[in-house]
Amino acid sequence: MPRSCISARNLCRAVVVLAVVQGACLVASAAGFVSSETIFPATTRAWLSLSDFRGLQARFKASPYGQLVNDPSMKTFVDHLREQVSKNGKQRLAKLGLTLEDLEKVPGGELAAGAIEVDGGRLATVLLVDTTGHEAEAKALVERITGRLLEQKATKVAVPNAPAELTVYELPPDPNAVRADQPARERRVAFALASQALIVGDDAMQVGQALSVLSKGRQDNLASVEAYKAVVGQCGSKVPGNAAPIRWFVDPLKFAVSYQATNPPREKRKGPDFVAILNRQGFDAIKGAGGVLVFQDGGHAMRHHSLIYAPPLPGRDPDSAERFDLAARMLRFPNVAGAKPEPWVPRGVGGWAAMQWDVKTAFSAAETLVDDVVGDKGVYDDVIASLKEDPDGPQIDIEKELVDHLGQRISVISDHVDPIGTDCERIVIAMETTDEKAVAAGIAKVMDADSDMQRIDINGIVAWELIDHTMAIPSLDVDVPGGAVAHADHHDPNDEAHRRRQRLREKEEKLLPHATVAVAKGHLLIASHRDILDRVLSSHDTAASLAAAADYAAVRTELGKLVPGATSALGFGREDVAVRPTYELLRQGNMPKSKSLLGQMLNDMLGDGKPGTVREQKIDGSTLPDFEQVRKFFGTAGLAMESQSQGWYIVGVSLPRSTQQEKEESSQRTAEASKR
After folding, report:
1. Which of 32, 256, 442, 624 could form a disulfide with 402 if both were Cys (CB 3.0 to 4.6 A apart)?
2. In angstroms, how far is CA 159 from the centroid of its own chain?
């Protein structure tokens, strides 16, 4: 789960994308075509629409995020960031002959993009732009697209019976995208310039079809899809028509399958195919997800409404654990009324979130998923049996001694410590217990049997801490006459089971290298570091709880207006606390070295893939101002989820920073710092 209900990564991404369009000068008038969801076909797997480009620009500019982007102290960094985003955007849009700068100048109304599944299961990309009031710019853009394609040695293709507005070019095969065992893929760019619309895509048929239905739409359109209609029915009326919303929709698993078919890896895939596994394990019950997002609306800096559409299988009870099949049965999140932070959640933490989860059903449902991932039926049962029967193991019946004594509430507390560094972020995962003593006994069995966990004492409470092997003293191997002496830590190098356990341990240590575990306050507590666990265990005063904080109360009030009933998940976050570690690491040039979950994920996605290597930081953060100069632009955020018969309804809000909350937060943090 994220550090706060709106993660720093998603927040920064929204700021970056919308900062790029700040300079656009747009003129609103009559629409150049009907709403794009009636133009895109029913086989559209992902869709994004900015229905009022000018209105979105104005609302974003008025929001705290727009004020941040336009603050004089941020100018040098924002200019550099725009340059980097533009460079990356050129790389991604180059195959269509476009750049991000092009997209700033042309829209006069709606701008929409879609990924459409076509014959062969691959995805075709189509970009649809309302050019009303910008016809001259659109014509100039078409000329630039043509010039860029010719520079790439593209050749014009004659399409029989094509309308005069449609132009098609074929590009030479990309040698970097071709595998030896596969034929070269056709690379085409098609574009059509109508009176008040520009359509660009990589599939001539889809561009031509969009051109032919601009004025009236088509019958087999995205708007007719059951999942899309459910999203609109739940979220469409939640924002006013003049709010310039960002609208989106995705059919997640079908999109993922088509994306794989469209972008095959240069080398054959190694390891499990998780997309195929999710489809086999019943997660295709999720038929779609979508929603709306607006800026600066009704006192909210940002607000979003989303629906994950997953109706029960035919004939199934939507409230039953058997709503779905196989591993998808773990997607059961009961609603409860009156949820709030536990009294021991410290008042000054950066974020808190809690979810109701049917843990017992999830435990049983995990069997087929684990077996499928490993590729061998019975592995899950073997692991559970080995934990119970292996004489060198904990000899614990996981289900009876642990799972049966867990409740349905899982909470996450997040924060960071000063000074800001690569290992400053903190997290605690708290799992509710129904029998604390039974869970404590079970955890003691598991921890005492693990040689990498050492028993410690935190204010009279028994806990276990992962041994930091990075500081371990190297061992000295001595030859003994008569052969080697057997040792409990010695393992047969050919023991595949041991190697699997060792790899799993290495992954665990990478994610939580300082993990600390305890059972207290009616919960199983798993912390990233001992100090944050110590802080939680030391919290006793209800008045010093997060639930008593003014900024939490303000967010909870807003969420209560938007989701007045019982909820299956709630979250709260202080944006400045969530953003600050990333902000400071960017200033230091150390973001690639971050040991946070976000930092490690970015390294995995953006690095060279070689174990132990650290990626190069692409963004120069040295020109960022001192964080205290921009803290005022970050407020508080909240999230609520309601489980419904048709899926899960999610609402999020972001509130501007208030003077009263700022004073209270400052005094509270000072008080907490004096206690540490």
Report:
1. 442
2. 42
